[in-house]
Design brief:
The complex is a heterodimer of chains A (248) and B (236). Chain A is built from ten helices and no strands. Chain A has a single domain, classed as MetI-like fold (Orthogonal Bundle). The two termini of chain A are 40 Å apart. Chain A has 248 residues and is an all-alpha fold. Chain B is an all-alpha fold and 236 residues long. Chain B has a single domain, classed as MetI-like fold. Chain B is built from nine helices and no strands. Chain B has helices spanning 27-32, 34-68, 70-82, 88-99, 103-127, 131-139, 144-175, 186-196, 199-227. The radius of gyration of chain B is 23 Å and the shape is elongated. The chains are: A mainly alpha (248), B mainly alpha (236). Chain A binds chain B through residues 1, 3-4, 67, 70-77, 79-80, 82-84, 87, 164-165, 167-169, 171-172, 174-176, 182, 185-186, 188-189, 194, 197-198, 200-202, 204-205, 208-209, 211-212, and chain B through 1, 24, 82, 84-91, 93-94, 96-97, 166, 169-170, 172-174, 176-177, 179-181, 187, 190-191, 193-194, 197-199, 202-203, 205-206, 209-210, 213-214, 217.
Chain lengths: 248, 236
């Protein structure tokens, strides 16, 4: 297929990667956007969700925020922000419309983080919570030493979901002439250079898969009950426990 | 904020959506451009419905295959989930070599995205059918096809419909990205609105998107109630 060959040629040309506005710069820009937005969403969403989960209140909010998040297109949020008060000014390493993109992505990342973290803490079996209280643990201790570790895998699953989706969604910043690799795609499209657009799409998709795999590894590491890891939960383990560590 | 000087000779009183005023909320805009808004909404609705239906038609056989051949289950679920990690702005261009700049590009892309939720829920729904119920139907002489259509699918419907609602609402939102190939329904208005700094258009298109998502969700909820009268419990 001709187009694929052209796209490959575009990817194989070093000049397309280096220099100002090269794909490498855009890739770093988009990674920076993704990480910053995710960090902001974690800083905002995690404490609230964990606290509500610990108290066992606000389930309505935690569930519905996901539904609202799904119904509001991130593209619309991005456009509203950049046409509106936030504007499309240059923001340091985040590029043109950096602030609007960061806010839109942070809002986008909040629902999966909040919902997963809330559900994670809620789903700690009540017997375990009771047992911890019975041992004389105070609220904070129950949270730190029991609920937290047990909830961690699901919380990390939420972060993994958010990470990959934020990376993927960051590309649409290009639709408001914003930062990131999406610009390669839109440039290629609007200038009828489809090979370039295709090349950009391939890079974005490839990085998405790499992030997904990296996050999957991280998630496996975060599971306190994964075989072979020493935890405070004393469970009889089979002899396979240590052997499995090698594979992780 | 940069306001461009009016290009043409201005009227005595510029309308609230002229470049000089550029209000967010502008009834004149809604009145004057309602044809454009209507067309975009219809396109949006058409793309969404076509994509979700196509997704459903693909998801059901995939779920049946995954259930029948358990060895393929991991592969099918994994693949349908992996599709979701491909960014929508990247997926549409990837499809263009095959489908060209047409609504079909957007419909296929969105149908593939909907598989993530639909295959999983269809499989879970089918799994939730109690084994005794299945065996009784077989004992009554139901053929495999009749078992599927008369017993299993109806019983899987609540879980399947839950997935369908999630997929539909997400698809409404994602359709906007179709603006990259000029078939994004209300997304086209968002894209041209941001280029022209046209506030009334941007707000109207955004609100219509959310309204469309909520309306479709309500329709599906209603359909689910009507299709599964037994889940409402015994009423006096």
């Amino acid at each position: 297929m001709r187009l694929l060959a052209d796209a490959w040629a575009y990817l194989a040309t070093a000049d397309n990667w280096t220099g100002a506005g090269g794909m490498l710069e855009l890739l770093v820009e988009q990674l920076l956007l993704t990480v910053t937005a995710l960090a902001a969403a974690l800083a905002i969403g995690l404490p609230v969700a964990l606290w509500l989960g610990h108290l066992g209140r606000g389930g309505f909010l935690a569930v519905n925020i996901s539904n609202i998040g799904r119904a509001v297109p991130t593209f619309a949020v991005l456009v509203l922000l950049s046409v509106g008060p936030v504007g499309t000014a240059e923001l340091g390493p985040y590029g043109r419309a950096g602030l609007a993109t960061l806010i839109a992505l942070t809002l986008f990342a909040l629902p999966p983080i909040i919902t997963n973290a809330y559900v994670a803490v809620r789903e700690v079996p009540p017997e375990i919570r009771e047992a911890a209280r019975g041992m004389g643990m105070r609220g904070g201790q129950v949270f730190r030493r029991v609920e937290g570790p047990l909830a961690l895998p699901l919380i990390v699953a939420g972060i993994r979901l958010a990470l990959v989706q934020v990376w993927a969604t960051a590309t649409i910043a290009a639709l408001v002439a914003g930062p990131g690799l999406g610009r390669v795609i839109t440039d290629g499209f609007y200038r009828s250079n489809y090979a370039k657009g295709l090349a950009g799409a391939l890079v974005v998709a490839a990085v998405a898969l790499v992030l997904e795999l990296a996050a999957a590894l991280l998630q496996r590491y975060a599971d306190p009950l994964r075989p072979g890891r020493h935890t405070s939960v004393h469970e009889p383990r089979g002899e396979g426990g240590t052997a499995a560590t090698v594979s992780t | 904020m940069t306001l461009l000087a009016p290009t043409a000779a201005t009227d005595a009183a510029p309308s609230c959506y002229s470049r000089v005023v550029n209000d967010w909320v502008c009834l004149d805009y809604l009145r004057d451009r309602h044809d454009e808004l209507w067309d975009a909404t219809v396109q949006h609705l058409g793309i969404t419905v076509a994509a979700v239906l196509a997704g459903l038609l693909l998801a059901l056989p995939l779920a049946l295959i995954a259930r029948r051949f358990t060895r393929l289950e991991g592969a099918i679920l994994g693949l349908s989930t992996a599709l979701y990690t491909v960014p929508s702005l990247a997926l549409f261009p990837l499809l263009v070599p095959f489908t060209g700049l047409s609504p079909l590009t957007v419909v296929i892309g969105l149908a593939l995205y909907s598989l993530t939720v639909l295959v999983r829920n269809a499989l879970e729904g089918l799994r939730a059918v109690p084994e005794e119920v299945r065996e009784s139907a077989v004992g009554l002489g139901y053929s495999p096809l009749r078992l599927l259509t008369r017993v299993e699918l109806p019983l899987a419907l609540p879980v399947l419909m839950a997935g369908l609602r999630v997929a539909t609402v997400s698809t409404v939102a994602l359709t906007t990205v179709g603006a990259i190939v000029a078939y994004g329904g209300l997304g086209n208005l968002l894209a041209s609105g941001v280029q022209q700094d046209f506030k009334a258009q941007v707000l109207a298109a955004s609100v219509l998107c959310v309204v469309l998502a909520v309306a479709l969700d309500a329709v599906l909820l209603l359909a689910q109630r009507l299709l599964t009268p037994w889940t409402r419990g015994v009423t006096g």
